[in-house]
Sequence to fold (836 residues):
Amino acid sequence: MGHSESLPSYQQFHQGPAEEADSMQNLRHAASEAFQRLGLKQRHLGYEELGELDGVEKPQPHWFHTLQVRRLRVQRGRSNSDPMGGKSFQQEFQWKTGLQFGNATSYLNLEKLGEGTYATVYKGISRINGHLVALKVIHMKTEEGIPFTAIREASLLKGLKHANIVLLHDIIHTRESLTFVFEYMQTDLAQYMIQHPGGLHSYNTRLFMFQLLRGLSYIHSRRILHRDLKPQNLLISYLGELKLADFGLARSKSIPCQTYSAEVVTLWYRPPDVLMGSTDYSTALDIWGAGCIFIEMLQGSPAFPGVADVFEQLLKIWTVLGVPTEESWPGVSDLPNYKPEWFLPCKPRQFRDVWKRLAQLPYKTEDLAQQMLMMIPKDRISAQDALLHPYFNTLPPPLMHLRDTVSIFKVPGVRLEAEARDIFSPGRRMKSPLAPLAKCW
Amino acid sequence: MSRTGFCDSRQLLDLHMTEDRQAPLRVWANSCILRERRVFAEGDEVGSVHHCKPAQESRWVRRLSISAEDGIIMDYAPQDESDVYEEEALLQYLNRLPGPPSLRDLVPGLLRREVEVAISKLGLLYDQTYAWDIFLDMMRSQLLCTLPNADLPKPFTDTTRAILVDWLTQVHEVFQFSEETLYLAVHLLNRALRLIKVSISGLQLLGVVCLFLAAKKEECLLPEVSELCYLMENTYSKKQLLRMERRVLIGLKFDLYYCLPLHFLLITASIARCSDKWVWMARYLLELSLLERQCVVFLPSQLAGAALRLARRILQEAPTPDGETAWCIASSIHIGSEAALLSIMQIMAMAAARAHTRETRATFIKFSTIQTLHVSMHPALKAAPGFLGLSCPRI
Fold:
């Protein structure tokens, strides 16, 4: 999406513009002849025909189950934010005999939750069943149609049904906008970690990790990579259910370096092979990200917080894993951005020396972290194998046999422990600029 | 053109790029025969296992009659039971499939190994751990990728559809899209034609929108809307195109999944150790099937299997024992009845025999280049229907 503007145009990627134009020209003529011979196409559509096209479009398809509800005349709740851009209220809210899925009138939006790269997210409430929902209003780029990220996200999520993947309830389309209706999740891992600084409870970390790996294992076995794992994209419910969200980049053939607003995407969770320009994306890409998140949950601070650029990000990684050489990583010198001369040689260090919290925990914690943060992508453990790692032995055995759609919190005895520190707990009154987040809990 | 991100030009379809041959197949096959004997010695055990298979799964059971008639020298063990069941126990905790018992019970362990190697070789995913899961997922989900019947809505005929697909093939070539995009676009078109009412004047617009959506799903570089309009001689405005895009997306309920026959073809070809020429010939036949209305009712794996079989008949390469064994294993991927395979082969053979004389020749031309080993010019193609007992069309 967005990073199209500054990029070279299509033609520069292919043959010379002249040939290009030639072949386009030919194709155009050939096609028009063929189509005209068949009477497939009239040169110009008259006004009537345009009207007819419009007419066909009018009925709104509803592919979700329709609930017949008492005819309601409800004033829209007070709302500071309006996905319709404040106009055409009457037009948009034509009252129908029932409230239906797929219909904009079935949801009220309450407040703005955040601004994504290609969408704005609102908290909303469903007037069909009273459930809270998250409304993701897609910014329509009028020039190029529906953003491809939205198309990918919706088409992927429609095929995914899992307790650790965010659920897409409904898609609403009106003339002006496109809205995805997701289940509402109270918070995300980033906020949760802000609320509980200094590292999370080790048991909670285990539960979150288990769910994260469970979700990853599910999507990986469906040939989908998430590609953009970070705490902000891991939603958490009040129970502690963790769900993968934001599949806009999933399965795209590349990872963007810049978002729509030219803000640099964080490199913290990106593996060294990708930072060095490898394009052989594999499931190991997501595993590295999950490993970084694992350390961050335990430690309370990001594993590799690079600040400026790829160079600094690599430096952070090398200080822990050591600068790779052709011996330690066969094939590394073929990567485009492999520049060992830029770095002082350093030896790999023990994880427990780098991240002190690991030293206080049993060895298997460090072992799992180590297996996830292997330098060579091929050596990294798969999500499936990671779930069988001894680190998870202390969890109740039934967790291993759940069906896809069953949350781990359905197993008796599984629940989140109280965190040691909570900046919002009444016990320790702290003045914090983050106070508004308290409403999430 | 705008791009969807930074392009990596990894050639997904370059089958023989990373061709490093595995252990000779005969080794696999021999070990397999031994196991077969061992298992069959304990006959009742096998019998009981077979007995408890539900009837509805019988469609997955492999059949070999055509291959046998082709001169297959050996049958191979239907299952490597013990292996499969150990795996099963390990995997059970994770992915309990709802519905009927999993395919794992039915597909031979040998095939499993081959599929894993093939998938990772093709770069469909770089992690072998999931190769088998992915394959099972493909096998399951392809069932959702067929259409109930081959009828076209009223004003459209075979010819109009063929011309549209042919034109889309050309557009797709001009933009240098991947083949996945073309297959997906035609699939979307097939579905959209049934779901959306378009007049005959809107058909080209619908076609282009399907290609546009497929590109948005698959490609790094997207064409601009104005370029697409230009290709249609500005018959339609940008606004019309974008409006149609929404109609199609909504009509398809945002479901853009397609289980590509091309992937099945490449996996099967990789398992069967097909020669380059064989693979190109099969790809040509498979792409010709896009033009044929009747082909929409068949499963992607059947289309791929039929293309490979027909290509094999046409090329008539001298069989080698290794090759035969490999082919035998690979052909267990095609599911469904022999009759279905045969009728696809007949459709393809007819299409191939008259490809060079038809108006819709984009595919023919595409596969006549040196890169594709001139497969579409192969002299035996004209006689292809003859191999299947059909009379060749008069030209």
Remarks:
- Chain B has two domains: 62-93+102-145+260-395, 149-251.
- Chain B touches chain A through 79 residues (CB under 8 Å).
- The CA atoms of residues 35 and 325 of chain B lie 16 Å apart.
- The mean pLDDT of chain B is 74.
